[in-house]
Amino acid sequence: MADTEPTQTPPPNPAVEGAEASKGPSKSELKKRTKEAEKAKKAAEKAAKQAELEAQKAAAEVDFATEFYGKLPLNQSQSRPRRSRIQIASLTPELDGQPVLLRARVQTSRMQGSKMVFFVLRQRIDSVQALLTVSEGKVSKQMAKWAGGLAMESIVLVEGTVKKAPEIIKSATVGNVEIHISQIHLISGIEGILPFSVEDASRPELEAEESEEAQFKRVLLDTRLNNRVVDLRTTTNQAVFKLQHAIGNFFRDYLDGQGFTEIHSPKLQGAATESGASVFKVSYFKGNAYLAQSPQLAKQMAIAADFERVYEIGPVFRAEDSNTHRHMTEFIGLDLEMTIEEHYHEVLELLDGLFLHMFRSLRQKYSKEIETVRKQFPADEFKWREGPEGTLKLSFKEAVDLLVEDGVPREALDDIDTPSEKRLGRIVREKYETDYFIIDKFPMGLRPFYTMPDPEDPTLSNSYDFFMRGEEILSGAQRVHDATMLAENMRAKGIDPATMSFYLDAFRMGCPPHGGGGIGLERVLMLFLKLNNIRRASLFPRDPKRLEP
Amino acid sequence: MADTEPTQTPPPNPAVEGAEASKGPSKSELKKRTKEAEKAKKAAEKAAKQAELEAQKAAAEVDFATEFYGKLPLNQSQSRPRRSRIQIASLTPELDGQPVLLRARVQTSRMQGSKMVFFVLRQRIDSVQALLTVSEGKVSKQMAKWAGGLAMESIVLVEGTVKKAPEIIKSATVGNVEIHISQIHLISGIEGILPFSVEDASRPELEAEESEEAQFKRVLLDTRLNNRVVDLRTTTNQAVFKLQHAIGNFFRDYLDGQGFTEIHSPKLQGAATESGASVFKVSYFKGNAYLAQSPQLAKQMAIAADFERVYEIGPVFRAEDSNTHRHMTEFIGLDLEMTIEEHYHEVLELLDGLFLHMFRSLRQKYSKEIETVRKQFPADEFKWREGPEGTLKLSFKEAVDLLVEDGVPREALDDIDTPSEKRLGRIVREKYETDYFIIDKFPMGLRPFYTMPDPEDPTLSNSYDFFMRGEEILSGAQRVHDATMLAENMRAKGIDPATMSFYLDAFRMGCPPHGGGGIGLERVLMLFLKLNNIRRASLFPRDPKRLEP
Fold first, then answer.
1. ipTM
2. If one looks up domain B235-537 in CATH, what number appears?
3. Which of A439, A541, B421, B444 maximizes the CB count within 10 A of its CB?
4. What is the per-residue pLDDT across A12-65, written as a single tens digit (0 to 9) for each?
5. Is the whole model's pTM more than 0.80, yes or no?
6. φ, ψ for residue B220 (rounded to 5)?
7. Is A488 a catalytic residue?
8. Which of A327, A374, A385, A546 is catalytic?
9. Which helix (H) or strand (E) holds A439?
10. Pair A506, A485: CB distance under 8 Å
11. Which strand (E) or helix (H) includes residue A407?
């Protein structure tokens, strides 16, 4: 246990010397003895008094320890004085002289001599310096020693006074004040050894040419993920997951404003739909079930059930044995589906409006978090077009032409593979000054069976992908809403319509024209912030080799 | 195909009689013949003219069919005139005489004679009567016949004029107007036979004593769920799922306002945690994974990772082979976890505030939807206490005493089983006039290993359940945040701490005191509306016997 209990000084044993009586003494002897006895008595009294004083002092020390420092009861929940705690973020020099109470992590503690302890205290993305100084009747040496010995990452409850900082403290995010501690209690300590310090885990990720020391201190991704709970405490990660929450909220708010209904579709399915190869099999009582690799079928059935416009935020599962920087076996899908009145570009334009809303809101409302992340992950600011010309839309053919112009052999471009995507992203950024664009009209052969063909050229389809920094973040299309056509397309792709009869039935019962798309939440987060690996955008990522923590 | 294409009248064969030439005729004969020829020519000309007229007329009929009725192109997405569609809900008598365009389902269609067709057109929870009348040059007999033959549940695009209804039309939700149709097109038809009509599926659920006819028309739950896409189209279900969306939003908004962060935790886990018995096993590449039966561990780890206050909305999986009215194998958990400053009642009170916010917001903002559901599912209005005395809070002991007073033998009340819960609900409603209450301080023996014991009486725990209409809808507690105590508790419950080391590690690295709870979304919805079966509150429910649709 690194959280040391205050060592109690045992009350000193009072050195009381009892006077010993002897038999048949002489008078002078008696006198002498009496004198000696008196002397002894006095000495004893003195000793007793001394002992009492020392005992009192020791007792006072114990009270002091209980009152001013030490470990709080494990259970908490014993009384409720309703004392309010302050957030580090709200500390300002205007509070100079004000008493405050706060709960925080000990990011670092450092003794200076035997009379001063410097702390950096941390709450989420904020930190402040705090100072404990030995002073008569207020802060004992013992208390300072105990506090200086607190392990990094201990959680403490601190009472103190806000002081303007004599100069800006660079080691803390709130650098213009410090806290002068009068009391400090341990709420929760550390057991064992930290896998790495939060300070080391917060160092900037440098692209190359690091110093040997920097390389040594660098915490590798795998080490971070194995100890994700500590890794998540960096200000960077606190910001990343505030931004993840924000993206979800912007998605929802925008769609709620457009008349969408949020749905929750089952992840357990009776058949391996869409593409059986990448589906996880589940033991389901005496039979099997399969994990949904998207809410595609369910959201389309919701359209057939008159929901008009639906979205879902939920896990999707992909049993693909690939360990790239952008694939996980479980991720959060932001999915939507909507009825079309006249043309599938209604969907494409709504999706574009949605992305612009997310980008704008992130920049407007979360600049502090974005800045926090950038300190560790330096990146060019994410660019999109705001002018009257709107978002760049290329047809698949135009995208291919751009790549061919850039030197990619046309024969290699039946599909645009991942390296070509990245290359296209660079070409587009240079030519159109945007990190965000749309490719429309993919060849029918590249899309799933439920994609609606182009009415004029059946080799093309009414489908689109959206890109951020040269990586796909959304795939979508107008869907086939006619049961006969759907069954034909299934057969053409080698799927037996009988295995998906419940899905086909939905269309047999009448379904309006519709389209939609699916966004990977973690991809948007990774690419907006340029985190370079999707695992950094997932709380507890899952890949073929990782199921814990 | 029930959606009949308009039959084209073939253009009539023009009856042209050719004049036949003969050899060597006399002059008079010639004259006669010339006259005859002229006559024939005239007749031919007349016939040709007649034929042309008829052809013109037929052609006009075809144009008329294309213009005024018929099936729209399957693909849509060919042109984009951007004509705006109206919502039935926004139709009012003030719009009398206004032209409108709308897309809707044909709920019913009925021919009256050969010249009039009455429709009830439906959009989600609204419906309106529409009327097609044969009139020269506007609505042909053919068009009326075609329209009258449209199958129920066809989707049509209708152009017409709003008219004040001569009297309130009871068969529609918007009863004070009707639409006089000038054009009608089929967007999507029906293939095969409807399993039941949406009208039948919308009839009130009567408790008992139904007429034989009512019983016959009643659509059984299993039939509904087998054909969920049609069942979901009832105005009742449209309202139910709008309310489901609303509850999720109220949950989120309230917690966002209280400084919570939304998280997404993985559903795939490396070990069968919490209680292995009710966990689904997944084939995971060359090994196995397990489906999370709650985000309990992940949300606690998020607290250890300094997230302070977190919530999650996501699927939870229970491999329990029970087919009750309130269990599903997959449902949506509304889960939250928060740091405690002084006392676990901080959590209990926040949860209470959350429920009151949900109840109040539902009543204030969704009275139309609640009324819609009540037409099919009659229920006493859901009651809660709004006075200064606040929500009723009973200790487990007090709840047991109430049941004993009511005649339940005390020996049977080590736990409060489902029938006793229901009974308690009735007792509380009678005595305290509320359908919503809290039971606090459950015996430690009834709660999982991660529950914090009561500091004064270790046979009790800092845990609570929330109830609606006598059924549990939330279970929560203060959690053990100390790794040593947690490992001891695991051993005491027969769990090997080594199997959950990643979880224990989170607490070894320092974790603040915290507590939380989990709410079943579908249960709240079912109990607020009194739907009597949880499957009605789930879009596509899953139970041991149902994995489709």
1. 0.87
2. 3.30.930.10
3. A439
4. 333 333 334 445 566 777 677 777 777 777 777 777 777 777 766 655 554 555
5. yes
6. -70, 155
7. no
8. A327
9. strand A436-440
10. no
11. none
